[in-house]
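Quick start: read one record
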Amino acid sequence: MSRPVSDAHATTWRARQVPVPAQVVDGVWAIPVPLHGSALRSITVFLIATGDGPVLVDAGYDHPSCWASFQQSVAAIGQRVDAITAVLLTHNHPDHVGFADRVRAASGARVMMGGADDFATMHRRRGTFLQQVRTALDLTGAPPDVVAAMYADAVAVAAHPESLRLDVPLTGETELRFGDVTLRALPAPGHTYGHTVYVDTRGLVFTGDTMMAEGPTQLAIVSRPDDDPAADLFRTLARIRDLGAAIACPAHQFPYRDVAARAEALTAFHRDEVETVRGLAHDGSTAWDLARRMTWKKPWDALGQGTRRFALVHTLALLRHATATRRD
């Protein structure tokens, strides 16, 4: 298990409480923002002090309570929202992009994200998030009534505006300079197809949802014939492992050390998942057949509807990779 940067922060998170803002290193603060109506409880956004003004990594939900909490926390650490110069988004899920527009309106900050996760680009290539969910559910081979129920649940909890306009769509590795601070934006697909991690040259990597301190990574939704998010994730984890970073700053849970070891542990976990799927599958097996036989935190029938949906779509991605890498 990875070593937390702050034992107090890790203890608070494991108690399912929302931690208070904390300094990770000099000039970098972890700011937990409550997630209104979400079982996740909170997301951690990071504020980096630079000579050009603060830089924000990720931006919570678009909800008045999230925005108010964020503003209060920024003031409590002696910073100003209206001075933020850039918002660096790791990916396009609603708990990450939510109040980016509010920050831009308050400060004139430039909003950046991986080009494949730009909503306009995603809509052209893949459709909306919910359209992708429906396609994936249909591909799982689940009975029509299960697909309908899972999709209805997704609509109820995951519908969100997908209209955020980027000032800078990031393509490939990009160096970003903000006064005395240099960050590198690195493509890091696996959780989404345009997921990006940001590397601070002082030894930090802001990992978004790619590498939490504990638990697995949810694989991206399979909706096109060439999708293989597990392969994407394995390449991303190898790249993060080799960065030489001292501290990982994920968007959920807590900052931690032993970054390379954590990347290796996650790789081993997900490779074991692929092998499990490969061992269970036979010609004609569907993700629906396999997901109910996989080992989850609880037995399949004890999982909530949303958790079963995540597990089923995750299994589809594992099956796609197991099939693509089938051993003769």
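The CA atoms of residues 86 and 224 lie 33 Å apart.
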